[in-house]
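Example record

One chain of 473 residues, shown exactly as stored in the release files.
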Amino acid sequence: MRLLYFILIMFLLAACQPIKSNDINVPEFDISEFKPGGEATLKRLNTRTFIHPSGNLSLEDELDFWDGFSFFRDPWVAAPAATKDRDGLGPLFNARSCKACHSRGGRGKLPNVGISKPMALLIRLGNENNGAAIDENYGGQLQPFSITLSHQSLSTPIKGEADVKLQYQMLDGQYSDGTRYQLRKPHYDLVNLNYGELAEHTVLSPRYAPAIYGMGLLDAIKESDLLALQDITDENADGISAKYNKVPDVLNNKIALGRFGFKALHPSLAQQIAGAFVNDIGITNPFFQTDTCTYIQVGCRQRSKIGGHDSQLEIPAKLHQLTEYMGQHVAVQPTRSLKNKKAQQGRSLFYQLKCDSCHQPSFKTDDNYPVKELAGQKIWPYTDLALHDMGPGLSDGKAEFEANKNEWRTAPLWGIGLQNRIQGYQAFLHDGRARTLEEAILWHGGEAKAAQQKFIALDKPQREALIFFLKQI
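Predicted structure tokens for this chain:
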């Protein structure tokens, strides 16, 4: 009996031991990790804003970048207006400009607890069983704002769709070493509904606007390189089942691999930008040529017809392409203290916990990608752009084409440690619930549960080393 007791104690002690560096093969440090965007990486660290052109753009091409930036920065106004290139706002919308949701090219501010009309936090509407479903009265995305009364004299008055009520429930937890932590779980309700009740099966899916740097490089990854990572049935038995969403390519009228958006809704950066224009600002474009008014929203439909853009798009192809050019070339910042001893310890732990199973460290972009500055680059985005089951804790209850309610696209990690330095605040995950990187890891479930449990088992210096590494990439 005493021997059995001794064996049990030794087993428990071994289970609580910190991970040792020789438990798994850690790849040697690659000098290219200093430049996560390859030659397109920003040449010098700049902590004022994320908005910088690719480090390998010519001065002439930088002029096009800043021209495109003006359509990102400047607010849109209701049509008809003297500024024809900037009118067409709404009739319903989330924000007047891209910048309002992507502050300094990063993530906008989350709403406070209580009732508000959020901008950087979008509420998508759908249901669990139909990946293409939208709400009959409110469409596919809540739009809390409407154009002002002065622009409504010829139509039925327009009201924003609803307000959002945000509350948090605090959840307590504990690491294996006894250190306690607390997570916050958000709860959303729609109040002041102006177009009737939501459909019975409509669910609310919050989406916190992401940072926009490096998007062109993600667009430049070869599809075959992504599909090589797909393992839907977990044939290699590692507990990770990467799959890629299959979504409409609206210009080419076909189904394509999704890579942009929290559930990989869009197959290209151009379509992602177009979707944001029409859904967030109410700007029709070459991809989405009609406003998002539903049948019950009579004032919205009337106003859409008299805005002065009945025979042309609110942002035509030439200006949309200029905005896309800017989006392609928002530079990734260089990494910071990666050779620091603490960062190297954290890097080893990143691989030992098998975080790289989903956060694929590196790719080489397509040599034949049509934008030469983005082609053939060794990049370090730390994402596979694939969907993974993140467990019920992060479920939003909404399907999105082939993405189910528990599945989310792996978020890129490059530049993640600069959010607080550049913007003065930080929040992580698809809805901003995580206040720190530590909390973001603790929310990982489903396929990432094993890595989360290994993180919980680390001692405090190891946890700090891993977080330090993440803040350097």
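Notes: The chain has a mean pLDDT of 93.
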